[in-house]
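seq:
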Amino acid sequence: MALATREGLSVSSFAVRELSEVARRADNPALLGDLPDLAVPAEDIVTDLEAARTGR
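struct:
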């Protein structure tokens, strides 16, 4: 939820945006190499998604 809030988006909108970007990059390995490492643990993402679902 923190990532979505920081971007001014709902968690669902943030997830859709990120998944769209990942899908676009998946077909272009050169783009993957240019991505920054944001060092966001997967556990934080899962926790935020679960918190958003609980809050519905």
